[in-house]
Amino acid sequence: MTDEDIRSVLRDELGRIAPEIDFDRLDPSVDLREQADLDSMDVLNLLTALHQRLGVDIPESKAAALATVDAVVAYISSRRSGL
């Protein structure tokens, strides 16, 4: 799975949680919570959905570190490479 594949899944899942967000307009290096106005429950729902779709464990304790699109993609990519 490529980084673009991961971004596509992230786009899909973020669209389910916050349908008003235009993923393509998000800056991948800026905090998602601020750009997409996500609350803590939205973030947990997003991480859970990514776990279910991609099979990568994402501990709740990592939520703060996975604040940007780039950080989420890098984390998932690094974990999937170990599968």
Automatic annotation (TrEMBL):
PROSITE patterns: CARRIER. Residues 1-80 form the Carrier domain. Pfam families: PP-binding. It comes from the Bacteria. This is Carrier domain-containing protein. It comes from Brevundimonas subvibrioides.
